[in-house]
Amino acid sequence: MWCLELLLPLLLIINDARCQWNVWVPRDISAMTNSCVVIPCTFMYPSGIRPYRGTHGIWYFGQPYPQLFPPVVFKSRTDVVHESYKGRTKLLGDLNQRNCTLLINNIGAEHSGKYYFRADLGGANMYTYPDFSELKVLDQPNIDVPEEIVSDVSLELTCYAPDNCPEMTPEIQWMYIDYLPDPEISSDFLEDGNTAVLSSTLTFTPRPMHNGQLLGCRVYYPNTTQVYERLISLDIKYSPRSVWVNVSSEVMEGQLCDAALRGGQ
User: Fold this and answer.
1) CA atoms within a 13 Å half-sphere pointing along the CA-CB vector of 212
2) How many whole angstroms from its chain centre is CA 100?
């Protein structure tokens, strides 16, 4: 069902609150392979609609157009879903309370992509929201490395791990830092748009001797065998230095005389 706001944009100035098909999902969310992810979701529909035989919903993968038969991730009316989602999905939200929050377990790289929610209120009152949540499934953590690393200048490296699986809380550990000068490590928890990221920042001052040294970030889940690692190699540039050369006048005069004699031969 299309709202008049969608068919006739000029009616936006009327601000008709009765016509509202809206959904709130995080635009981007990430998770590690073999973990889980929760996609927070809240939806609205026109106030004049009365759900027929309850409120139902469908989650699609890849595209919002049911006539093109996108893979079904979750369907509240039946348990018929695409093969790659069987036994993996669960609705955490209460659709009658307009909460469409979705849990996906044991995710793999094939589950990376866009997720769309479709409200089914009975009869012709069905609507697939165009807003989507894009899931990125990672097989290694991200490390934020400056474009240029300069010798004798303080350096910060930050490792990130998604924390969007309530059943599994990640921890971050730095590797191969024993030979760094006075390394400092600080952790932080970032939350934005109902998605969460755990970060760990390594701070130290690199020396020329550290050029080519390997450093690593390890993300692991306590009480599991799941470990993810990423290695980087330090490419250290020398800091600019001013070099003063003091040449005595006697040396300069001697060089000029020798040059003159050779030129006259």
Assistant:
1) 1
2) 22
What's the CA gap between 124 and 263, in Å, rounded? Answer: 101
Q: Which two tokens stand for residue 190?
A: 């970032």
Q: Please check the confidence at residue 16 and state whether its pLDDT lies above 60.
A: no
CB crowding 42-69: b at 16 or more within 10 Å, else e: bbebbeebebeeebbbbbbbeebeeeee
Q: Give CA–CA dist 26/133, Å, rounded.
A: 5
Tally Cβ neighbours within 10 Å of residue 3.
Answer: 17
Domains, the chain, in order of start with CATH, read 4-138 (2.60.40.10), 142-237 (2.60.40.10)
* C-alpha–C-alpha distance, residues 258 and 261, integer Å: 5
- Torsion, Cα 202 208 214 216, to 10 degrees, reads 0
Question: What digits encode the pLDDT tens for the residues 26-45?
Answer: 999 999 999 999 999 999 99
CB contact at 8 A, 220 and 173: yes
pTM, 2 dp: 0.80
